[in-house]
Specification:
This protein is an all-alpha fold. 78% of the residues lie in helices and 0% in strands. The chain contains one helix and no strands. The termini are far apart. The model has no long low-confidence stretch (mean pLDDT 89).
């Protein structure tokens, strides 16, 4: 594996850890605390 490929994969991993996971946790917590009442 070339160093540039290793750096690319590392940046993808850290991008997921820093951006995707906190956003997912925030959306999950928001959806649990702010539920809509849908009455037909």
């Amino acid at each position: 594996m070339t160093p540039s490929l290793a750096n690319f994969l590392s940046s993808l991993l850290w991008g997921t850890v820093i951006v995707v996971i906190p956003v997912s946790i925030g959306l999950f917590l928001l959806s649990q605390t702010d539920q809509l009442d849908r009455k037909l």
